[in-house]
Amino acid sequence: MPAKNDDLHGNVPDKAEVALLLIDVINDLEFDSGEELFKHALPAAEKLAAFKRRAKRAGVPVIYVNDNFGKWQSDFNKLLKHCLEEDVRGKPIAELLRPDDEADYFVLKPKHSGFFSTTLDTLLDYLQVKILILTGLTGDICVLFTANDAYMRDFHLVIPSDCVASADADENRHALEQMRRVLKADTRPSNQLDFDELKRPADADEAPPQPQSQQFAGQE
Question: Is 13 domain-assigned?
């Protein structure tokens, strides 16, 4: 029986202890709570776009984990094209956070968690990721569900409070507090996170350092 492959045939880095997940950011927001969500998601997307650029400069892989919206014949490129080229509410966010050609990774999910019935586990295993940075939409649903599943898989979690958004600001803050308290997530704002600092504890197989008290810089 052949030995397990050490890589994905050149399609991913040999090793990346830290990975950045962008959850459901390619989204037309054409649903009942979409208008309210857009008001919070746009400023979060602006913060996330800058944070993503820093991640890429630090050599941190970026993985888009996106809902298939029940369209099983669809793929990520079709979703992206729909959000960029049609007159949909989520277009400005898709423009800010569009993936880099041939540089980012994509996982389509059928339900709330990025791990449920997807290839995310396999990708993270090959990358040898230990720390997951979760960002995107929505903090109180898909980010929260993905964080729960990541925690049960023993990933250390970083969830920058200004890079997640929900339709309801209070629910977003509550979800961030739950993830900080229960899942031991580092919820400092993105401008307080240093990628070199995050990588060091990953090498030592320790949790990232966290301040005694964390100020949530997310939705007002």
Answer: no
Using CA atoms, how far apart are residues 160 and 48, in angstroms rounded to an integer?
Answer: 9
CA dist 25 and 136 (Å) reads 6
Task: Give the residues across from 19 on adjacent strands.
Answer: 132
Determine the Cα–Cα distance for residues 68 and 107; give it in Å rounded to an integer.
10
DSSP-based three-state secondary structure for 63: strand
pLDDT digits (tens, 9 = 90+) for 115-170: 999 999 999 999 999 999 999 999 999 999 999 999 999 999 999 999 999 999 99
- In CATH, what number is assigned to the domain containing residue 142? 3.40.50.850
DSSP H stretches of helix in 58-137: 76-85, 91-97, 120-127
Tell me which residue range forms the domain holding 190: 18-203
Residue 14 CA, chain-centre distance (Å), reads 21
- Prior bond to 119 cis, omega within 30? no
From 71, 66, 59, select the one nearest 22 (Cα to Cα).
Answer: 66
Report angle CA 175, 179, 184 to the nearest 5 degrees: 165
* Count of the separate structural domains present in the chain: 1
- Under a CB-based contact definition with an 8 Å cutoff, are residues 165 and 190 in contact? no
**Residue 199 DSSP code:** H
| Full-model pTM | 0.86
The residue among 149, 82, 140, 81 whose CA lies nearest residue 109 is: 149
Which amino acid appears at position 220 of this protein?
E
